[in-house]
Amino acid sequence: MEDIRPRRSALYIPGSNTRAQEKAKGLPVDTIIFDLEDSVFDEVKPKAREQVVETIRAGGYGHREIVMRVNAARTEFFEDDMTAAVKAKPNAVLLSKVESTAEIFAAERHLRGRPETQGIALWAMVETARGLQDIAEIAASVRTPEGHRLKGLLLGTNDIIRETAVKGGGDRTPVLPWLSMAVLAARTEKLFILDGVYNDFADVKGFEAECAQGRALGMDGKTIIHPSQIEAANRLYAPSKAEVDEAREIIAAFAKPENAQKGVIAIQGRMVERLHAKIATRTLKLHETIVARS
Ligand SMILES: CC(C)(COP(=O)(O)OP(=O)(O)OC[C@H]1O[C@@H](n2cnc3c(N)ncnc32)[C@H](O)[C@@H]1OP(=O)(O)O)[C@@H](O)C(=O)NCCC(=O)NCCSC(=O)C[C@H](O)C(=O)O
Ligand SMILES: [Mg+2]
């Protein structure tokens, strides 16, 4: 069955920031990502790891999806991070700087054969030049028994900019081809995909423009770094009123007895096919889930 869980806003919180972790219990985000990677100084990682396990096990985050971002499989921290993830049992483990299917399989080895980890998904961050080159193959690992837990891709645009030396900021022209390539890889394998972060959390207009752009590119939501970004991400990644009205109109039109045997109809001078009814059904389901939540 298709995964239509809303992931409009996915908030990163440093694993070492207990104040922000507590605060997030009252924030209207869809997803919380407890970070053990780049926001945590190396010397502090062991303490942050313990802290995150304790916080996730204690719960209190309601409907929010709980994710733990672990250090890359190539680092000295990975094994301990994965052991901690098994203890914490988040909804998903986010693998950072993924460059090959082997890294997905390495994470799976920690989870395999343990009934208590059955519900833990794997998400992969693509944020290196190598990862971008091999993104289709990484996404396709979902078709293998060792990669079946892979559910989504996340973009790490800060690292992409660092690795490739393209100019960041502005309208993201230099990275657009890679963002589109990532969307294509995700859609090919029926994975969800979340856009990278917008660092300038005081710039509301710039953030809104980037959300609108990400949505137009086909992203399912935005990874964010600050509470000030939640409202805009939730608003711009939710179906708009016009989209919901149109979806209702399409479904109602195909439900009429005279259209029961038709593959294509006209609504107000526009061609509408059964494929549009499928999109409309998805839009309405997403909308209803969001409404029920709020
Ligand atoms: C960016 C920040 C360091 C800013 O922190 P600060 O100066 O403390 O912000 P404010 O004073 O404006 O905070 C106001 C209140 O909001 C709470 N807060 C702030 N950030 C968060 C958060 N992320 N989650 C929950 N709550 C948050 C503060 O506690 C204040 O509340 P109160 O105490 O009640 O007054 C900070 O926002 C931050 O650390 N953000 C997350 C950074 C992070 O996790 N970075 C790593 C992931 S991003 C990344 O790596 C991208 C990717 O890999 C790539 O390559 O692109
Ligand atoms: Mg990164």
From TrEMBL:
Presence of keyword Lyase: yes
Coiled-coil zones: none
Alphabetic keyword roster: Lyase, Magnesium, Metal-binding
Source organism superkingdom: Bacteria
GO BP annotations, alphabetical order: oxaloacetate metabolic process
Binding site for substrate: R69, E127
InterPro entries, per database record: Aldolase/citrate-lyase_domain (IPR005000), Citrate_lyase_beta/mcl1/mcl2 (IPR011206), Pyrv/PenolPyrv_kinase-like_dom (IPR015813), Pyrv_kinase-like_dom_sf (IPR040442)
Keyword DNA damage assigned: no
Stored SUPFAM superfamilies: Phosphoenolpyruvate/pyruvate domain
UniProt-listed Pfam families: HpcH_HpaI (PF03328)
Residues holding Mg(2+): E127, D159
Domain HpcH/HpaI aldolase/citrate lyase, first and last residues per copy: 8-227
Record-level Gene Ontology MF annotations: lyase activity; magnesium ion binding
Cofactor dependency: Mg(2+)
Record family assignment: Belongs to the HpcH/HpaI aldolase family.
Name of the protein described by the UniProt record: Citrate lyase subunit beta
Organism: Terrihabitans soli
